[in-house]
Amino acid sequence: MAEKNKVSFKQLTRYALVGIVSNFAGYLVYLLITYLGATPKITMTFLYGVGATIGYIGNRNFTFAHKGSLLGSGVRYVIAHFFGYFINLVILIIFADHFGYAHQWVQAVAIFLVAGFLFITFKFFVFMNPKLS
User: Fold this and answer.
1) DSSP code of residue 127
2) What contacts 101, CB < 8 A, 6 or more positions away?
3) N or C, where is the chain less crowded by C-beta within 10 Å?
């Protein structure tokens, strides 16, 4: 059990590193593009796809050191991100459009909520290792 906890902590730490770098850069681009006039949801959609593509490589190789099928994990990754994207979109619609909160703050919070969902999904569904999960 202690080995599982140690591996999970390492994975979470690595996931955070990959996420901090990619999400910080993506969020700065989000702020710039929306400042220039693009709509928040279209900007989030575009950047979500770019970030997810880059994140696959970092999370598969660095975070989870996954040695399983590239195709299998790739399909599961797309499924996980479909739900992550949907969660992000719903958060923006509810809190920015419906309740009127500033989209910049809503998106900042959404990044963390979706990241938590994705870590769990990646660990137990996308890049699972039956010996360590």
Assistant:
1) S
2) 95
3) N
* pLDDT band at residue 130 using 50, 70 and 90 as cut-offs: low
Which structural domain range is residue 21 located in?
2-126
Domain count, the chain: 1
With respect to residue 103, please indicate whether it lies within any of the assigned structural domains: yes
Does residue 18 sit within a domain? yes
Compute the distance between CA of residue 43 and CA of residue 61 in angstroms, rounded to an integer: 28
pLDDT in tens, 61-106: 999 999 999 999 999 999 999 999 999 999 999 999 999 999 999 9
Q: What is the dihedral angle through the alpha carbons of 120, 104, 35, 43, rounded to the nearest 10 degrees?
A: 30
pLDDT tens digit string along 104-123?
A: 999 999 999 999 999 999 99
In a domain, 75, yes or no: yes
With contact defined as beta carbons under 8 Å apart, do 103 and 92 qualify?
yes
Tell me the two tokens of residue 87. 């969660």
Tokens linked to 40: 């928040």
